[in-house]
């Protein structure tokens, strides 16, 4: 009887720890998704600014900002 109780307790403890790990993993994944979304939105805003700069005759600055936006977008995709 003691062996059954010990085995059941160990199984319950193992499942409890697994549930905690799953919750932590879900939180980490959600955090990464939010960071990726923020980076993509920032990159989009930078591209819009680069377009405005280009229209204002600031071609060199626009190219630089567009390249930075592309790099940020690629970094977000790599997450």
Describe this structure in words.
By secondary structure, the protein is mainly alpha-helical. The chain has a domain at 24-78. Helices cover 94% and strands 0% of the residues. It is built from two helices and no strands. Helix 1 (2-55) packs antiparallel against helix 2. The radius of gyration is 24 Å and the shape is rod-shaped.
Give a quick precis of the structure.
The protein contains two helices and no strands. It is mainly alpha-helical.
Topology:
Elements: H1 2-55, H2 59-78
Helix pairs in contact: 1-2
Region (Disordered): 44-79
Protein name: Circumsporozoite protein
Signal peptide: 1-21
Structural class: mainly alpha
Rg estimate, integer Å = 24 Å
Would you count the extended β strands for me?
0
Number of helices: 2
Low-confidence stretches: none
Features:
79 residues; 2 helices; 0% strand; single chain; mainly alpha
